[in-house]
């Protein structure tokens, strides 16, 4: 059976256009003999469930579009698998629709209903179906599905749902094969594996592409390019050896390269969604703004990028004047290197007050007003240029900006989208080095730790300025964070934001617990301001869009102060131990009462009973056992044969034959 994978990039939710594109891909696949076409996950409803999946009319339009598509595909004699997020029984579900013979079948819902009717509790194991004698199974988790697949499957079709995460190689599809991903599943279960990887940007999520087909020996026999659209067609032949792609010919995951290309395709799709094919941004001579301009050139071409430089006037000191000339020179060198257009504007003299007070720890309220006025002026300049050029306003804010000083960052580098908003500042140095290997673009002076430190100092100054109403905190922020290295700050932020580690587990806490606590305080305080900042393409384990905390949250992580962490499992175990302890005490009490009752009936003293309950006591009794047996035999005789105190018989209604000839301990 020949399988086809349509690695296509479409506008999210454009149902008619997507169905038409799928039909075109099906026609091309049919010409090559394909019998099954697979499409990516996020085309119709995005990369994650959301309110759109709850809309009854959206689901109606989606099913109507798929029904019409199924009728047209029936004429081509080809089936198709179309995944999409839907709402079912009050919960979100990633459904897979099988378009075959003119019909639309929701495979996961159909399978769940059948198993529920049969009383099977495992409702969501991978659905399985046949195409031309090839038994196909569908999964959204290739690593775990191998244990859930029923026996006899020939092909596992893995639909990648998670977007690009530069900290996890497996999100890069075929580029992760050399790192040991996917291959063990195919080899262990001895089945073919088809990976359907999306490409492009969908509602802030970025996908790298790289779909592939792997045989049952773990060899990649066909692969689509990364970050490009493609139609992959491959014949699935069980039990035969087919030509494969050697490992050294496969793409290899490189964090900086995949980050750069992922941001590029995400930026292009964001501009397309806004109806733009150009970009405009503010150039301030820093590493982030210079690298953002380079990214825009790679995404749109140099003729479609406009840079804005706002010169500061009214310099008060020779040092300020020299710094301004150096900044302007860096911007002009960058513009000449990238061959983009430059628009220059001059800031009013009020900005001189801003320059004069940049070195101060606590900035008074009037100076903060000057900063806001200056930022607003830059925003107006950029809006005018973007409107005139019909361009997308791009911001060069980083994830470090978003974390520490979002209140002061929104207007300092304005824009509609911030491609580096999910990338920490220190990572940009490595990305710039990688990009410069393909052609010198970013000035060498900016690709250095010194440039990173200079930009971070500006972030810390903005964070301190926001505490002007509380001078003590302003001084603490400037002093505590100003002495840290950029790598220390970004590592602590990544551990807290991306990995969700508490204060006690941050790498910075062991050496600078005060600075770590201040970082977390700044992150919590900026929650409301971050929501007003430009949109961000998500390329990390956890973007701020996914991490949104309540705006009015009063709690702040201050650490455990040496106490052991409390969790639900610990509380549950403690409750179980308490219940077991109460049960043991109750059992001991019941045993004691029963033994006391038996002892009173058989004439055994409490001291003897206590001695008999332990091994040591039984050893001490030793020679007294025959005498004790005689005592028990007499008690049994009186109990069961009806002996009375005055020698008369018939006093015991339960009298019966005595078990004579057997010792008490042998009977019990």
UniProtKB/TrEMBL annotation:
Pfam families per record: CN_hydrolase
PROSITE patterns xref list: CN_HYDROLASE
Signal sequence annotation: none
Coiled-coil segments: none
Entries under SUPFAM superfamilies matching the protein: Carbon-nitrogen hydrolase (SSF56317)
Gene3D superfamilies, sorted: Carbon-nitrogen hydrolase, HUPs
UniProt domain CN hydrolase: residue ranges: 1-238
Protein name from the UniProt record: CN hydrolase domain-containing protein
